[in-house]
Write a structure and sequence with these properties.
There is one protein chain. The protein is mainly beta. It has one domain: monomeric porin ompg (Porin), CATH 2.40.160.40. The chain is built from 1 helix and 18 strands. The strands form 2 sheets. Strands 1-2-3-6-7-8-9-12-13-16-17-18 form a 12-stranded antiparallel beta barrel. A hairpin with a 1-residue loop joins strand 17 and strand 18. This is Transporter.
Length: 302
């Protein structure tokens, strides 16, 4: 029975530690996209010929894992995740008609500490790398609307073992297209949003195929001074296809849901560099963990 509990815990935990987030049901619900991250000038890419550095730092803590009815289903569940995820993005000088073309990558470093069914483990390793080969950007003539389409891929580079409850990777690749928008709809006001899909391949080690997921990150902010913006931001996550094991649906589909919301403050050092602090309280979780996220996000040209 002890070995069986450990295997169950490993399956659960290997699918709740992500690039910048803990999430979702089992292996099938496991998020690679760091939902909740895109709440800062979502639609803006570097200018043509320039390169931008981004740093995403997140601490996540949860002591509940919700079942399909929203109630906690795992005794003695506790997880803490710390992530530092540097990102480089370059916009090429030659446009594609009215559109800019940008490319980049994200390399997360993940620390996990977990207790599940009374068993504790921790690990520090790289997570699953996200490659961003082709971002197609557009800026309106009025310079009030910025947007881009992205076609991202995650690679199974994180540590993974079926017998571990502290994996930093998921052992399968995913395709993550997104549409990202920033709209300065009134002087001093910003509305930003990112609509993201995650389409997962099968984990060949377990023959488990995670269900596909749609996510919305959003933020509305007001600049109280030319350098300081305050706002409200959050996310909505909804798994829209079933988890499958050996080609068969797992339970009732094991579909994950979770929401988050909280305050955000941003300070701009210059038009191209700044730092943001934010907090997200999760609620309404089903088949996923429910906890608290704390972020520090920084960006500057290089």
């Amino acid at each position: 029975m002890k070995n069986l509990n450990k295997i169950i815990a490993a399956i659960i935990f290997s699918n709740i530690v992500g690039l910048s987030s803990v999430a979702n049901a089992t292996e099938s619900g496991r998020m690679i996209y760091p939902f909740g991250v895109n709440t800062v000038l979502n639609g803006i890419m570097p200018r043509p010929g320039s390169t931008q550095f981004y740093s995403y730092t997140q601490y996540y803590s949860a002591d509940e894992f919700a079942g399909p009815d929203g109630n906690n289903v795992i005794p003695d569940f506790e997880v803490d995740v710390f992530v530092e995820a540097p990102r480089i993005m370059h916009t090429w000088e030659k446009p594609l008609g009215p559109f800019t073309v940008s490319s980049g990558a994200i390399l997360p470093i993940v620390y996990t500490s977990s207790t599940i069914f009374g068993m504790s483990e921790s690990d520090t390793d790289i997570g699953d790398i996200i490659v961003q080969p082709f971002n197609l950007g557009y800026v309106s003539e009025s310079k009030t609307v910025f947007s881009y389409l992205a076609f991202d891929f995650s690679l199974p580079t994180g540590s993974y073992s079926q017998n571990s409850v502290a994996n930093t990777g998921v052992n399968y690749a995913s395709f993550m297209p997104s549409y990202n928008l920033t709209w300065f709809f009134k002087p001093g006001w910003e509305l930003s949003a990112s609509l993201v899909g995650q389409f997962n391949q099968k984990n060949d080690d377990t023959n488990y195929e995670s269900g596909d997921v749609a996510m919305l990150d959003y933020a509305i902010g007001y600049s109280v001074t030319p350098k300081v913006q305050v706002g409200l931001q959050g996310f909505v996550l909804n798994q829209f296809s079933d988890d499958k094991l050996n080609g068969n649906t797992v339970g009732d589909g094991n579909r994950a849901k979770v929401n988050g919301i909280g305050p955000q403050i941003r300070y701009d050092f210059s038009p191209a560099s700044g730092i943001a602090f934010k907090y997200q309280k999760e609620f309404g979780a089903e088949n996923t963990s429910e906890g608290d996220k704390f972020w520090i996000q920084f960006s500057m040209p290089i």
